[in-house]
Design a protein that fits this description.
It is built from 18 helices and 21 strands. The protein is of the alpha/beta class and 496 residues long. The strands form 5 sheets. It has a 6-stranded mixed β-sheet with strand order 8-13-12-11-9-10. Strands 16-21-20-19-17-18 form a 6-stranded mixed β-sheet, with helices on both faces. The two termini are 58 Å apart. Bound molecules: ligand FAI. It catalyses: (6R)-10-formyltetrahydrofolate + 5-amino-1-(5-phospho-beta-D-ribosyl)imidazole-4-carboxamide = 5-formamido-1-(5-phospho-D-ribosyl)imidazole-4-carboxamide + (6S)-5,6,7,8-tetrahydrofolate; IMP + H2O = 5-formamido-1-(5-phospho-D-ribosyl)imidazole-4-carboxamide.
Length: 496
Amino acid sequence: MRRALISVSDKNGIVAFAKELANQGIEIISTGGTKRALEEAGVATVGIEEVTGFPEMLDGRVKTLHPKIHGGLLARRDLDSHLSQLAAHDIQPIDFVCVNLYPFAETISKPDVTLDEAIENIDIGGPSMLRSAAKNYAAVTVITDPADYDRVLAELKAGGETTLATRKELAAKVFAHTSAYDGLIARYLGNRETVLRYGENPQQQASFIRDAEAPAFSIAAAKQLNGKELSYNNIRDADAGLRMIREYSEPTVVAIKHMNPCGIGTADTIFGAFQKAFDADPVSIFGGIVILNRPVDLATAEKLSAIFLEIIVAPAFEPEALALLSKKKNLRLLQLDFSSQNQHNAREFVSVLGGYLEQDMDTTADDPAAWQCVTERQPTEEEMRALAFNWKAVKHVKSNAIVLGTASQTLGIGAGQMNRIGSLKIAAEQAGARTADCVLASDAFFPMDDSVAFAAEHGIRAIVQPGGSIKDQDSIDMANKHGIAMVFTGVRHFKH
Ligand SMILES: NC(=O)c1ncn([C@@H]2O[C@H](COP(=O)(O)O)[C@@H](O)[C@H]2O)c1NC=O
């Protein structure tokens, strides 16, 4: 006789499923609460104690953890040695396992949950049975998702048994589930998961999950010195800013809005760098995030405190600067170790409907010495410095991305437009009369020469772009016609 072990926390649909298994002549073994639910509904079951010869004990911590259960699940049916060992120990094979786990996620999402309550909701026996059954999918059908009840019944009714392909698929589902279940427990116990007030919008729930070993230069490792708790958008914006600032080793300030830079400035002092980042776009910085790669002194703090900002991130705050900025109760001040800013070579992930994508971070070190000048006129040294500065910036702007700027300051940033000249027009409008002082950086090639023509009309003297369009020659001819120096980097920096 075939046997099914049923032990479920979520009892939805279990009665109908068990009834149908019984109709197929399958004997049902079940644990305490499951047995009560099934028997109240008139489904006869064998209690787990009758199988193990042991009572459920330790408040349910030990019910199914027994060789009579795991032997019955793990024995290979194609090996005589396994079958004879089962017989020698009076163990019956178990052919179906239907288990869903203690609701750990639901438990920890309760606002008043205690650690004891959370710990009691870590299921041990359930995942053990699921994993034993899944390992032996050659013979055992394992069901952890009530959504699979109908599918299993349909196969049993049609052919008397489940197919190997289905059992394998269900086994894979089990390992994905137990791995996610354990991951959540690890993050909870490691204090790595912070439930946020909300996500991108108030109607979205969200949490921040830190890596077990978050690098020192990361938003996950930032020390908050002042202000309200970080929001979902704060975390993403600050992260975007950290990725930007690590491009620059000189005293530099990056101002960020909605994950794009709105101003980047470099100078001999951090005060001067902030002034340049601010002047780049004194309007957009309002409500933004400012990242400084040198300690904040009092003079800079005075400038910073004169505007409304969400967050300031820096390697340190001098005591008077901290005292001044801390007067703003809501202003989030984050301190980070910038000395390790270049030690990142992480993978990154984004979710899509039905899965996720994984890739290396775009940490290519751009080497202007390897760039190729494709025009008659070579860039001057000053132009070359400006091209290098703005190329670092454009890499962090949402595509299609255009950055206009000098060797120490961005002056116009065009982000996220669906055509390249659209981004250029926005950047030029921002730079205004200063467009003629700028060089131009484009994150990807020009599909046609219209952007170069527009640049020429606005007095731009030098351009950096990856090259690689079939119409590159049109852009080169247009640049030559107007005496523009243009270099190709051979590297594209899309950012979607
Ligand atoms: N301790 C054990 O041996 C054990 N065996 C099964 N469970 C879990 O107990 C729950 C079902 O319990 P009940 O049938 O008593 O309502 C299931 O979520 C199952 O995963 C166990 N509980 C926790 O580890």
